[in-house]
């Protein structure tokens, strides 16, 4: 595997880094922007989830559009849109401006998440495709890590009484930092070649052969060229494909597999955990500062286990990683539910008098009252203080009142993240880049990406409502139950694609 190939794969998947960065950043931003704009649960959900809503549209059209104008050209536009989104988000003066700016970024990462694995699969050989496509997921989790680290640092400066950072402006700097990686992505994209398989589909044969030879060398390049030419000889062109053709009986099995994996990746709650990580850790009563630092630990775990996936995916195969990961995800989420179920809440007179940012006397009537669930406790706190004051001080109030074992929840969250990072995270994109014939690949991945993004948007949108209405324990119990069912579904239907060329996979899984 040449250094040039690794460099190209890393650059193309920088869109994944920006997606991860955006997702990680918003979990800290909402701790400040939410109270500043006095957002309701629905508005909080929309600010967080609006990029995923925009991504749905981008995913639906970007694959097909790239079949016409090329993967590379669209990814250059993607990088530019990321930069614009970062600037507008940082300067947002209202709830409406903030979510519109974030939706611009959503269009960008929706296209990037579809096109990066597609492009990488089209320049890779069967032997290294899993590793290279997994670089997309590695960049995503590196983005998460960079974002949580940035959030932690900026929050630390603000909490230490900095005269430069305040509660009113620190979140703007959190959002604005994204401009830096977006600019690098835009510049580097000009140094990658066009997809050779796309060039073949446009009859630009000489250019395609030059790209393959420059990436793989003449010997391996000749093998890849022969494989693609044989595929084209069978009439597999990438133009004039209608949506209804995905419903053909010959494609039914691989479409079902893709849809199941696409739904499971999001419906188990991964983006609820990532996008609301700081809020979730606050629920354990560890305090705001510790919640930000726990986010760094969470994202570091993602990086470590994504590297594990890259090392194992072409050795163990896609199926074993995905099944082991799904089992671990289910167990971890159920552990979180158990940990939150054991929590109780009580404020003493000393704790009430220690609050400095609001009038603690408003809570005097609740002194010594024991709550066995978070719903009743939060309802009384909001009733006494008002939603905005409670939101600004939730971390401190829960830290004072909560009696639970936060290690259980932390272990559950980290276990979930670790298992996701070596299974559903990278394996889904690898499988989607492999399962579909060249003729249908852009459209099929776009449709499944749309469904994946819709589920992601839905989970992000309703998660604040779930916490407020169902409570912490029941919310995680639902996620854990879904993951359990998902494991048994995948056990029955999941194929193995390890070590097979794209054309070989097509001949085995697409029935005439």
Rounded to an integer in angstroms, the radius of gyration calculated over CA atoms is: 24 Å
Nearest-integer average pLDDT:
85
Sheet having the most strands = 2 strands, antiparallel
Strand content: under 5%
Q: Give the distance, in angstroms, between the N- and C-terminal Cα atoms.
A: 35 Å
CATH architecture of the largest domain: Up-down Bundle
The secondary-structure element order is HHHHHHHHHHHHHHHHEHHHEHHHHH
Which CATH first-tier class of the largest domain would you pick? Mainly Alpha
Pfam families: Sugar_tr
Main location: membrane
Protein name: MFS transporter, sugar porter (SP) family
Keywords: Membrane, Transmembrane, Transmembrane helix, Transport
Describe this structure in words.
The longest helix is centred in the first third of the chain and has 31 residues, at 129-159. With 512 residues, this protein is mainly alpha-helical. The protein contains 24 helices and two strands. Strands 1-2 form a two-stranded antiparallel ribbon. Helix 2 packs antiparallel against helix 5 (95-123) and helix 5 runs antiparallel to helix 22 (441-469). Helix content is 76%, strand content 1%. The two termini are 35 Å apart. The protein is elongated, with a radius of gyration of 24 Å. It folds into two domains: 3-192 and 241-330 and 407-494, Up-down Bundle (Growth Hormone, Chain: A), CATH 1.20.1250; 344-403, no CATH class. It is found in: Membrane. InterPro entries: MFS_dom (IPR020846), MFS_sugar_transport-like (IPR005828), MFS_trans_sf (IPR036259), Myo-inositol_Transporter (IPR050814), Sugar/inositol_transpt (IPR003663), Sugar_transporter_CS (IPR005829). GO terms for molecular function: transmembrane transporter activity. It comes from Lutibacter agarilyticus.
